[in-house]
Structure formats: structure tokens, C-alpha cells
Design a protein that fits this description.
This protein has one helix and two strands. 18% of the residues lie in helices and 24% in strands.
């Protein structure tokens, strides 16, 4: 559930200008103490 809002935002054209790649969001962790960390990147075909 922590990744879904980021995925929807990227799919709908949002960018994260504070990230190295604006079409990517890193350091996303599940709310259970952050044991698993994700990075979501939009790949366009």
C-alpha cells in the first residue's frame, strides 16, 4: 500500500524533481519499521 500512490502518480505524469531521476522515487519503505526499501521508476516504451 505504501507504493501504490507513487505508482499512480508516476503513471499519471507526476515527476519528483528533487530526485536524481525525476521519473523515479527511491527510499520507499513499508510502514513496518522499513525493513524492505523500494525504488519505483517509470519506464516508458
Amino acid at each position: 500500500m505504501a507504493l501504490f500512490p507513487i505508482q499512480v502518480a508516476l503513471h499519471n505524469g507526476a515527476t519528483f524533481n528533487f530526485e536524481e531521476n525525476p521519473k523515479s522515487k527511491g527510499n520507499l519503505a513499508c510502514p513496518d519499521n522499513g525493513y524492505v526499501v523500494f525504488k519505483v521508476t517509470l519506464i516508458e516504451d
